[in-house]
Amino acid sequence: MFHRSLNVAAWTLVLVSLVSVANAGSDAPEAGRARLRDLGITTGRYAPGPLNAITDVGGVLVGHATIVRGDGALVPGHGPVRTGVTAVLPHGGDLWNQKVPAAAFVMNGNGEVTGLHWVNESGALEVPILLTNTMNVGRVSDAAVAWMIRKYPDLGIGDDVVLPVVGECDDSFLNDAQARAVGEPEVFSALDTAHSGPVAEGAVGAGTGMMAFEFKGGIGTASRVLSKEQGGFTVGALVNANFGTREDLRVAGIPVGEKIRDLMPKDMNDGSIVIVVATDAPIDSRQCMRLARRAIVGLAYTGATVRHTSGDFAVVFSTASRIPHYPKELLYSVTLLSDGHITPLFEATEEAVEEAILNAICMARTMVGRDGNTAYAIPLDRLRQAVSH
Amino acid sequence: MFHRSLNVAAWTLVLVSLVSVANAGSDAPEAGRARLRDLGITTGRYAPGPLNAITDVGGVLVGHATIVRGDGALVPGHGPVRTGVTAVLPHGGDLWNQKVPAAAFVMNGNGEVTGLHWVNESGALEVPILLTNTMNVGRVSDAAVAWMIRKYPDLGIGDDVVLPVVGECDDSFLNDAQARAVGEPEVFSALDTAHSGPVAEGAVGAGTGMMAFEFKGGIGTASRVLSKEQGGFTVGALVNANFGTREDLRVAGIPVGEKIRDLMPKDMNDGSIVIVVATDAPIDSRQCMRLARRAIVGLAYTGATVRHTSGDFAVVFSTASRIPHYPKELLYSVTLLSDGHITPLFEATEEAVEEAILNAICMARTMVGRDGNTAYAIPLDRLRQAVSH
Amino acid sequence: MFHRSLNVAAWTLVLVSLVSVANAGSDAPEAGRARLRDLGITTGRYAPGPLNAITDVGGVLVGHATIVRGDGALVPGHGPVRTGVTAVLPHGGDLWNQKVPAAAFVMNGNGEVTGLHWVNESGALEVPILLTNTMNVGRVSDAAVAWMIRKYPDLGIGDDVVLPVVGECDDSFLNDAQARAVGEPEVFSALDTAHSGPVAEGAVGAGTGMMAFEFKGGIGTASRVLSKEQGGFTVGALVNANFGTREDLRVAGIPVGEKIRDLMPKDMNDGSIVIVVATDAPIDSRQCMRLARRAIVGLAYTGATVRHTSGDFAVVFSTASRIPHYPKELLYSVTLLSDGHITPLFEATEEAVEEAILNAICMARTMVGRDGNTAYAIPLDRLRQAVSH
Amino acid sequence: MFHRSLNVAAWTLVLVSLVSVANAGSDAPEAGRARLRDLGITTGRYAPGPLNAITDVGGVLVGHATIVRGDGALVPGHGPVRTGVTAVLPHGGDLWNQKVPAAAFVMNGNGEVTGLHWVNESGALEVPILLTNTMNVGRVSDAAVAWMIRKYPDLGIGDDVVLPVVGECDDSFLNDAQARAVGEPEVFSALDTAHSGPVAEGAVGAGTGMMAFEFKGGIGTASRVLSKEQGGFTVGALVNANFGTREDLRVAGIPVGEKIRDLMPKDMNDGSIVIVVATDAPIDSRQCMRLARRAIVGLAYTGATVRHTSGDFAVVFSTASRIPHYPKELLYSVTLLSDGHITPLFEATEEAVEEAILNAICMARTMVGRDGNTAYAIPLDRLRQAVSH
């Protein structure tokens, strides 16, 4: 068997992973943690959707697989492991044959999201978006191919070959990055369990080992809804937040990071952010690109400085239309939002991204990783206090 | 053991592969095949280097691992396999810590070369360039990480994480693409056996299953040397040629493809090209980008039309300087070629790319792949005849 | 008075210019000159439209104003003048309020086409495209504003401000570039006399003083029509050809430039090309960008090397839809060509551009400019001979 | 005569203009206005340079010409005029032959800065940067050519042709945009009087008629100095601020705009921003581009949302090296800052841009323009109060 021993090892992982997924899947706020808005802190002017999550955009699915395994000193390739994978799917249907309009913007290319050349050339997304840790991108990409083959058995035979979209941040301060612990089981789990409804945040999925503003970071999400006059569209963001120095952090404009200077990690783990934005507004790839650029504005609202070492990527898609993979007809018709009415969508994107990042740090709990390296959760009482005074 | 059974299987592969590599490594023209220039056909005005290969650029190393395994009907995931991997290294030293200036241009993003966001942001290349088949990119990327870890055991621990550069073309007309047959053994083999000197061409390494102009295609290489007054610099190109319809093919301007309309594959396998250009001219990343754009001009000289389905990528690096990964000093000094003197380098790039593509089809032998699918070698006598009349 | 003498001179110019325009407007092949196809030389596989001109795309209008004034030694700012302006309009209607989808690609930015940031951001063209000489861009741009104000008297008051699209090539080998001789009268004339039907080529309008392949160059045009199965769409190109060394020139693949080494200008005037492509295919701005990149492939077919000094710009628009300037509705519907069927449009673009460039040099007559500088017309008999042998 | 009356008027303008320039040249804070820092409000962590201005970067020169003419109802083309031109020169030497490294980033292309294709292709700036109002770009560009010809009489004869860099914002709420009132006299004045030392801010030069956050806006500047360990480099920013809705405005993170909702203009004049950043850090064009992207981060810190209608451009240059226009030697040597040490420069850029924007609104006085349209100055006492509470 090709992967037998891997699979044996993997099942152990999977058990851990499924437990984590199950926990994560409960989507209950982790004990002692709360989302920004639940702390009484609001940012922006638009109202969030019912879940204040990317899944407020109808049809969008999110799945996580989390691996937390081992403790103590690093044995390279053998843990401790603090990592995972997060999947975002524009819809639960036949994505390959019913692509969605999409585009990606790279603000600082010190990082990687694979597959973006094709996303931007075609103006479409035809595969799930997967997020994971940096040195795991290859393995996750390969697992994505496997998952696609399972779903589309003719890929690379009578059907086209597939180019996965896999984004990374570096969790090596907590995680044994050399282990590249995310394999097929976790990727399949994240994809197969992806669901609508509440989204687990913080140290979950790809966010498991991430840090933001030198606090524990990871996955965060938020959404905004435009008024009826503006079209009533929803914009949702999901981020894997792994960037920033402490002093940069601003919450609702307040320099919170300057006020909480303890609880520092022993080293700076200078990372990145991948931002995924979904909307049900009928926009095409050019307009998705415009939203992707605004995602970076939302990032800046948190005080981010887009450091040399921070790979800052934004991938945006619209769920409002479908693009066939193999169009039979020469022509197709599509309904689009006029650029003259797009500014509210920009603003909603900025607000959703800003709050998604802040939700990531609010929801992440303190985590001890390899070599005892510790990423501290932002103390929510001190956050609240810093903002209110 | 993590990969034990994989490794067992892999050793079989490796044996096959090493044989292929050994054959390929002999660098002797395959029986009955010849390079364009050896047919008496010359293109361009600049003289080639001694080998007329990318390895004429001092220090550049090329390695191939080739997998030819099985015959007959496709059993998806189990062959027949006609694929491989090709490695290009700017130098044989400590590439991670002594990066080289680089840039990449994407003419048509219907394809993938991973890691280019970082190449273009940093203006440098710090990893080998690997070429392989499309659905194998993830696995090759993961193997590249493993190879880098072997070489730099502190990666992702005290050292940075690594972003591999892996480019793809689609060989699924001949190859069982679902098998993703290129794994660690082949990647390690290609990297570890990479050498200066003659470069095997045609159906070798990543070119094993490729087609160009509906002939058998694959790996080709060529070089050009500027005059002493122009700086005496060398430019070398290596391509994985897998694009084009028959009727497009032009050799030295002659519409050869229109004259050889038989020997057609039963289906069009509409692919891509990845172009690697090396030079010892002292240029920075901005200038590498300018060369990368000219690589596309050389592509067009072969009659290429840059079809919708063709991912056309060019990666360019200079071997003339070294960029430290962890600069201790704030400042460094570099010597650069003035833009006012760069046009000959553009022309040399164009000529090298054009001839590299033509060498690929001249050197590739007929190959029968999965389901009896056959890619015919261009008949050299008819090529010669077509050009001379 | 600051501009008095210039303005006095300008009226003279206008008279000359109007005569020239009248002549140019006759659209008769200049005596002794012929278009490529009329020489019995064909390139490409698609059929041209009825006029083999950009105006085969329904609704497209082209106008020229030509200034040929003075002889002998240059008196900077006072002539001799060999220049002009060419206007291309997507349609003759209310362009400002009924924009067309558009995009522009810059292959080598050693030149200028103003207004492209807005074209690419909005994905639309809302003003005429104007071509002229380099140092005249400002004055032509200002005249374009004046023309737009005349047409839209509320611009910059209750209406938006306007950003002209003006492209340049450098005609200073023949022309007194410091004179910036193209002013409002010429710009208004080119715009007001723009018409459908045959397009004057060669040394006319913006092409008056241009050189290509060290022959006399200038304006050229061509078109291609897709088959009914491919959608029956028309693609037309218009170029201002002012680039290339003699030895680069290829006609239908034949290195004609190498065969005609006399009739050289005394100095190389190393210039640029602006390419305008129109189509009635229903494509959006992303697809226009894809066509714009293929325009460069067509350029390369002529042997162009995209030298350091050559600004190579392509602007593409589609006449198939209209985008309102002030959309009242949030949403609009549009019919688009599927990317899966776009390759023929790419090929047609390449062919039209290639032939447009060759038409420019075939139609241009020898011109003597400032300081007796002479740009020789390519001798058509020798061209024919070179291609046929 | 075409331009006679305009030209007659122009001399009047010049007188007015020179007076304005003289006033502006005194560089004294306008009565009742103060810079942000003088209000006791500080943003950012780095120290400003001695002048807290772009001219803290050694050698950088700034000149303004201001036109304030007429009152009352608009007579299109005849005023009232509230506009001007601002010139930024990297150094006072032979800029054409001693270019500086440069790059430009376009965050939202709803606007224009001419000449950027060449800046980004060459990686250099060889002309002054001029800022003005939108429909005046052509005329200013032409004047820039005239000024360059005066300085380099062989331009377009034995010397290259020149491509001006002219950026625009739309001041048509206050200004008679159709007048295109900035001509040669004003452009020559701004260029010829450009000087080091204090920089006039607010409603001066190109900022005369601009609005930001629905307050009176215009020209602002600021600078930052890195520590000795960081290289001791200076970064300076100069902006023409003409963007934003009131509610967006944040000062030091505080939503000041939400607290001052009166003093609104009768219409939203939805504009743009052009940002110029200078540094004496030895960086190349790739690194200038990285700074240009960070300029947008600084913009976002002010609460900017990068609306559809806002053209957001950043042009960055380094004064640390010189690039010859006509290099005699093939090679040249340059000293560069390592990317590994560039983050402080990013942060300094962000801070300088943020403060430059805020200085623009702090220094601008209420202005009544055409049709009685009024842009109110932000009341400084209320600003101070809003920030402190």
What secondary-structure arrangement, pairings included, does this model have?
Four copies of one chain form a homotetramer.
Chain A: H1 4-26, E1 61-69, E2 81-89, E3 98-108, H2 116-122, E4 124-125, E5 129-133, H3 137-151, E6 165-169, H4 184-192, E7 211-212, E8 215-216, E9 218-225, E10 234-241, H5 256-259, E11 273-279, H6 285-301, E12 312-318, E13 323-324, E14 331-337, H7 343-363, E15 367-368, E16 374-375, H8 380-388
Parallel strand pairs in A: 5-6, 11-12
Antiparallel strand pairs in A: 1-2, 2-5, 3-4, 3-12, 3-13, 7-8, 9-10, 10-11, 15-16
Helix pairs in contact in A: 1-4, 3-4, 6-7
What is the CATH superfamily classification of chain A? L-amino peptidase D-ALA esterase/amidase
Task: Compute the number of helices of chain A.
Answer: 8
Q: What is the domain total for the residues of chain A?
A: 1
Radius of gyration of chain A: 20 Å
Shape of chain A: globular
Q: If you consult CATH, what is the topology of chain A?
A: L-amino peptidase D-ALA esterase/amidase
Roughly how many Å apart are the termini of chain A? Answer: 62 Å
What is the strand content of chain A?
15-25%
CATH architecture of chain A: 4-Layer Sandwich
Written account of the structure:
Four copies of one chain form a homotetramer. Chain A is of the alpha+beta class. Chain A has a single domain (6-388), classed as L-amino peptidase D-ALA esterase/amidase (4-Layer Sandwich). Chain A is built from eight helices and 16 strands. The longest helix of chain A has 23 residues, at 4-26. Chain A is globular.
